[in-house]
């Protein structure tokens, strides 16, 4: 027997392999490190760590029949995981060890409580791994992750579901909607007349059959009120708008002589929706304007180096 083969055989017998049996059902367990260090076979039994914020048991998501067994050597490396987090965050903000989670074969995640009051309810994470038949523990990554009771940002909602008509200010501009179902091309409103002409837009006056209609004085009085209203041509919206209602696809013209000065807004995102607007009025919800496109370059990373004590000192 060669010397190389003898050395290899001796290494095989020195440390038994912890590879899981492929025929067993898939599962993942979170267990305290102390129990794993004394009895490695207990890794198959889910035991919740004793802490105010225990790590919840992960659900198995593997489609194969392998069983993930918590590696006893990695589970016992609590000091290694704590030291790896301390290099990034400092030892003062690392609290109690909350438990371990077997992510895969010889791949374990350690959870620690975060004692920084700024990140209340968050947990420090250190992922450890080791090579087959190796005793050296390797730190894969560290992170600060939110816990079940931590304060996190709300889910993102698209702007067209979030913006209300009253949210628009004179300086705001909404993104342009190219395929807006509420708009169509102007020529699509042209109807064919009885003589075959296609250049006549239906236009008719209401009033026939009514006992009385507006007099010239009544029309002039209404025009004066509308011009001096919040949707007139002298408001902040009109002054700061990049385009006026006269060129907006949401404008519904009035009939008669007032169509030369006014129309009705039919834009659900505009603060003037359903109101009579001057043709020189405008807002950021104009159908043909658009927001300035921002750069697609990745933003510079921001590192939070402040602790609660430093923030209170600066504010004081």
Automatic annotation (TrEMBL):
Residues 20-37 have a biased composition (Low complexity). It comes from Brevibacterium koreense. Residues 1-53 are annotated as: Disordered. It comes from the Bacteria. This is DUF3027 domain-containing protein. It holds the Pfam family DUF3027.
